[in-house]
Amino acid sequence: MTDRGNEAYFGQRLLRWYRKERRDLPWRRSRDPYHIWVSEIMLQQTRVDTVIPYFNRFVERYPTLRHLAEAPEEDVLKHWEGLGYYSRARNLQAAVREVVERYGGEVPRGKAEVSGLKGVGPYTAGAILSIAYDQPEPAVDGNVMRVLSRYFCLEDDIARPATRTAMEGLARSLIPEGQAADFNQALMELGAMVCTPKSPSCPSCPVGERCEGRLRGREKELPVKTKPKKARPVYRIAALIEGTGANAGRVLVCQRPETGLLARMWELPHVEVPDDKVWGRLDEAAGRLKAALAEEGIRVRVDASEEVGEAQHVFTHLVWNIKVLGAAVLDEREAAGSGYRWVGAAEFESYAWPNVFRKLLTEYFLFRQKA
DNA sequence: AAAGCGGGGCA
DNA sequence: TGCCCAGCTTT
Description:
Blueprint: H1 4-21, H2 33-42, H3 48-61, H4 65-70, H5 73-80, H6 87-103, H7 111-115, H8 122-133, H9 142-151, H10 161-174, H11 180-193, H12 212-215, E1 232-241, E2 251-255, E3 266-267, E4 270-273, H13 276-280, H14 282-295, E5 300-314, E6 318-329, E7 340-343, H15 345-348, H16 355-370
This protein binds a DNA duplex through helix 2, helix 3, helix 6, helix 8 and helix 9.
């Protein structure tokens, strides 16, 4: 299927196209392995246009790996706010600290060493080694699997790990001598700009005339990918608790656990209820909220008639449906415990919030400001 | 192999 | 609405 002549055709046509059409992206203006690394972590499951402003802020705030290694964790999380998949931020900082301690502050050049860093999987390791150090390692992401599936008319399910492994072997065999950096980026660039998921621009494709998928009229059916399961709805009741006296103008918030969903981010205290029926009955919902807070040592009076907000937050694997009820603490000293804080409009911006709570609280503080 | 893990853009 | 995005880690 891939005789020498076709490999040369593919690589040379792709490289020529890339050197003419490549986008001017912030991380392409440097060969600093640390900058390449940061960009690749941010780009995991995240679009280029979304990443650009985050990348620029991040490298300005943490110009070198040592700056990042020495930063407070919550500072790093705050810079990641809104980007999603927050374990990436924690893993990245843990990994740069390891590079400082074990490799003298220089991103290692060995495949085993790079792959051993937290948050660095097969794709990211290949991307760092090829783009920063020009090593002939494949970097197979969703773009590359789509391009190869179409070009070679491969019907293997790209959701299967075994397919990705096979694609790595194929991609490795296609790397032109000494041009791994440009070739890998060219492959991804083609997937992003020409060989797009829907309605690919085959007429302007540099390798279209030998694309098996297109020649067989199959380009729109490829790649084959099993569908993910639908997100599961969950129902939650949150408390908006306003402070009084010294805490006037502030709201009681709490920090999420160290691991799992939205780890270490801040939110309104809330409780999950079994189903949408309980969620819809405000008196029962209020009772469950009050009981949950009592478990934390915080006694509150919840006003079931005072629904102050409602929001939906869609994750990949679940959907949060949130009702917000107004409430008041009986004794403000009870809410001084670990993980709980009174936060006002002034401090609000220095905490890291999931989007849904950032929106709810922004709305609230704006409302209070007017009142 | 399957599930957990964000958020946004686009047809 | 559903799909996909320069994926990795844990179970």
